[in-house]
Amino acid sequence: MKAEIGHVGKTWQLTGADGKRYDSTQAGSLGGHRRSRIYGRLDCRAALQAIARGGYIAQRVFFLHQADAEAAGYRPCAVCLPQEYAVWKKNKNLIDSRK
């Protein structure tokens, strides 16, 4: 295998703030589930259990930053990001009460 000039190592497919996938030389720091629009830590207990049961992997997405996940319309996981989830829930309830 011949290395390309300027290309070092592996690439990962991440989801950007616009919700579109792109290739990156950096690994994602957060994982998400496309259908449920939830993101969390890569070592999240709930996500790892879902992966072990099967069916979850086809909907798996990865983000470089929390801001990318939120801009793409994903919410924090209540299990592995409880503080971020509490802030999201409070803001959501505030918005819903104004409707």
From TrEMBL:
Start and end residues of each Ada DNA repair metal-binding domain: 32-82
InterPro entries in the cross-refs: Ada-like_dom_sf, Ada_DNA_repair_Zn-bd
Alphabetically ordered keywords of this record: Activator
Gene3D superfamilies xref list: DNA Methylphosphotriester Repair Domain
Pfam families recorded: Ada_Zn_binding
Recorded GO MF terms: DNA binding; methyltransferase activity; zinc ion binding
UniProt keyword Transferase present: no
BP GO terms, sorted: DNA repair; regulation of DNA-templated transcription
The protein, known as: Metal binding domain of Ada family protein
Organism: Collimonas pratensis
